[in-house]
Automatic annotation (TrEMBL):
It comes from the Eukaryota. The lineage of its organism: Eukaryota, Metazoa, Chordata, Craniata, Vertebrata. GO terms for molecular function: calcium ion binding. InterPro entries: Cadherin-like_dom, Cadherin-like_sf, Cadherin_CS, Cadherin_N, Protocadherin/Cadherin-CA. Signal peptide: none annotated. It is found in: Cell membrane. GO terms for biological process: homophilic cell adhesion via plasma membrane adhesion molecules. This is Protocadherin gamma-C3. GO terms for cellular component: plasma membrane. Residues 5-104, 105-213, 214-321, 322-426, 427-538, 545-663 form the Cadherin domain. The gene is Pcdhgc5_0. Keywords: Calcium, Cell adhesion, Cell membrane, Glycoprotein, Membrane, Repeat, Signal, Transmembrane, Transmembrane helix. It is a single-pass type I membrane protein. It comes from Rhipidura dahli.
Length: 677
């Protein structure tokens, strides 16, 4: 076995040893013996030059990688020689060099230490690691200069060294909250290598300081009735501690009364004292508030101060209006001076601020009368009319004499009770109605309507029919007509006949439901309009049913001689009575003619021997109605030679017939006048 020693990290080709020399053999013989180098590891760190017998480094050798922290590190080789076969064991010791500095796990470490930590307290620091061995490994630590900590290095049996910070002087966070140190690790190499770690120490606060107010007492001045939320004063206390130990909470001391706590409130965060209740000078003129400030440390520390609040008096009490007596309803016929309400007024303020004056609007029919100090009566000042104004809101205004004055308004609702002081009034003074004769029974002829401005029972109306003065006593309107008592619809009991009744007038009376009832009347004129319901009636010549009237004429009659005249009368009026006469049929239509309006029948030409001796004429009388009605009459004309008696009779008939047109004219004129009216 052959042993060599070489330092780690040699370059490739570096000389390790001469195997031929160390084995005592010839180099040529080694070359002829087929020399081979076999390594126990996976890597070939060495090679042999068979020509020279020199062992050289073929790969980088890192002792820390091969052997770690072992104090000694070896690599083993085997040399194989043929003819004869021989094996040689070679042991190469790898010597450590100082190629690694000590290294901390991190570049910086943070510690949090309570400011009341005891002296001598130890705070371990993670040690540095140096993979070298022997004197090249970590040997010592150095701590930067400071006022509070020393360094203690703890050595273990395995040679490890662990640094510790030892508290030598008490900490004070309020003086210095952070300490910054540098720890240096150094090995024993030549030259030595080192590394550093920064140590940040945060001093944790301890509740060792109590809050301090910036002044022992505070003063403020407020006017009474200050709005809720008004700032009274803002307290300021400080605590040099930090975190919860320096976090201050404000509160009202338990020494304060419950009433004071209802008036003032303090914000525990900001220390603002604000008004949360009513400030009344009449109840208290000065308030003294005890306040305490506590920190949130454990245990808590507190401080106290007082706040004096002076209240300034103002005119803060409005007058009060008290109704001693009041009636919300009033009859509309109440006389002026009627008492509606008795009012008492008062004001809690004193002096001029407690004097009260009352008034109501001059636009209302009411007035105030001062009975004596602090009492008024509300009276009616004029006549009332419910139909004009049915409801009043009387505002009683009470004002004091303060600066500025305060007032209070009280509304008195007054409802007027209706009195039946208004008679019903028709919409029209009179009504004119046109009714066609033969109207249906029960048809509505007219609707009369009246109104009463009164209310409820006093405005409930009832209608009735009365006979109008100056009318025919035989024409009782209640016989023909009826009226609905509530809606005023006038209906017909019977159909009207124009030929019997052309005009009817009557009164409609309306009465309200008051007591006593009030009434009114309206006049209704009913005009019956004629309908074409009568056919013409022939007055001449008179003939029975299914019979004809005969007339005799001489063969020598000279045209246009009058043979006869058809006289007819129509009971209708107007166009319905305008008659026309028509020759509809005749034995010889060319021999006779009938006048369209007068009904005269005349011969139109001289008789001839060939003409018939008897002629039958059919005359139709027709009116002008829609639709028209008609009546027919048959005339028989005989051609005969008569003596003078016969002719005289014919002339007499003609004379009788000649007297009729005047009567017809009178009838027509009368009918036209009636229709016009």
């Amino acid at each position: 076995q052959i042993r060599y020693s070489i330092p780690e990290e040699l370059t490739r080709g570096a000389f390790v040893g001469n195997i031929a020399k160390d084995l005592g053999t010839d180099v040529a013989k080694l070359a002829a013996a087929n020399l081979q180098v076999l390594s126990d590891s996976d890597s070939q760190y060495f090679s042999v030059n068979v020509n020279t017998g020199v062992i050289m480094v073929s790969e980088r050798i890192d002792r820390e990688q091969l052997c770690g922290q072992n104090p000694r590190c070896f690599l083993h080789l085997k040399l194989a020689i043929e003819n004869p076969v021989e094996f040689y064991r070679i042991e190469v010791e790898i010597l450590d060099i100082n190629d690694n500095p000590p290294e901390f796990p991190s570049d910086e470490v943070s510690l949090r230490i309570y400011e009341l930590a005891s002296l001598g307290a130890r705070f371990p620091i993670q040690p540095a690691q140096d993979p070298d061995v022997g004197t090249n490994t970590l040997q010592t630590y150095h701590l930067s200069a400071n006022d509070n900590f020393n360094l203690n290095v703890k050595a273990r049996t395995d040679g490890g060294k662990f640094p510790e910070l030892v508290l030598e002087r008490a900490l004070d966070r309020e003086f210095r909250a952070f300490h910054y140190l540098v720890l240096t690790a150094e090995d024993g190499g030549s030259p030595p290598q080192s590394s550093k770690i920064r140590i940040t120490i945060q001093v944790l606060d301890a509740n060792d300081n109590h809050p301090v107010f910036d002044r022992p007492s505070y003063g403020a001045r407020l006017v009474e009735n200050s709005p809720l939320g008004t700032l009274v004063v803002k307290l300021n206390a400080t605590d040099v501690d930090e975190g919860p130990n320096g976090d201050i909470r404000y509160s009202l001391s338990s020494h304060n009364s419950a009433a004071l706590r209802q008036i003032f409130a303090i914000d525990e965060q900001t220390g603002e004292i604000r008004v949360q209740g009513n400030l009344d000078f009449e109840e208290a003129t000065v308030y003294e508030i005890e306040v305490e400030a506590k920190d949130m440390g454990s245990p808590t520390m507190e401080e106290h101060c007082s706040v004096v609040v002076e209240i300034t008096d103002v005119n803060d009490n409005a007058p009060e209006v008290i109704l001693t007596s009041f009636s919300s309803t009033l009859s509309e016929d109440a006389l002026p001076g009627t008492v509606v309400a008795v009012i008492h007024v008062r004001d809690k303020d004193s002096g001029e601020q407690g004097k009260v004056l009352c008034h109501v609007s001059p636009d209302l029919p009411f007035q105030l009368r001062k009975d004596y100090e602090h009492q008024y009566s509300l009276l009616t000042s004029t006549r009332l009319d419910r139909e004009h104004v049915a409801y009043y809101n009387v505002t009683v205004s009470a004002s004091d004499l303060g600066h500025p004055p305060l007032s209070r308004h009280t509304i008195l609702p007054i409802t007027l009770i209706d009195v039946n002081d208004n008679a019903p009034q028709f919409e029209q003074a009179s009504y004119e109605v046109l009714v066609a004769e033969n109207n249906p029974v029960g048809s509505v002829l007219v609707t009369v309507s009246a109104a009463d401005p009164d209310s409820e029972q006093n405005s409930r109306l009832s209608y009735s029919i009365l006979r109008a003065g100056g009318t025919d006593p035989g024409l009782d309107p209640t016989r023909y007509l009826s009226i609905h008592p509530t809606n005023g619809q006038v209906t017909a009991k019977f159909p009207f006949d124009y030929e019997q009744t052309t005009y009817l007038q009557f009164h409609v009376e309306v009465s309200d439901g008051g007591s006593p009832a009030l009434r009114n009347r309206t006049l209704v004129h009913v005009f019956v309009v004629d309908q074409n319901d009568n056919a013409p009636r022939v007055h001449f010549p008179r003939a029975g049913e299914d019979s004809a009237t005969q007339f005799r004429i001489s063969p020598s009659i000279v045209p246009p001689a009058l043979i006869t005249k058809v006289v007819a009368i129509d009971a209708d009026s107007g166009r319905n009575a305008w008659l026309s006469y028509h020759l509809v049929e005749a034995t010889d239509l060319g021999l006779f003619s009938v006048s369209l309006r007068s009904g005269e029948v005349r011969i139109t030409r001289a008789l001839q021997e060939t003409d018939a001796s008897a002629h039958e004429l059919l005359v139709v009388v027709r009116d002008a109605g829609e639709p028209p009605l008609s009546t027919a009459v048959t005339l028989v004309v005989l051609v005969e030679e008569k003596g003078p008696e016969a002719l005289q009779g014919s002339e007499a008939r003609a004379a009788d017939a000649g007297g009729l047109p005047a009567i017809t004219l009178y009838l027509i004129v009368s009918l036209v006048l009636i229709s016009t009216v």
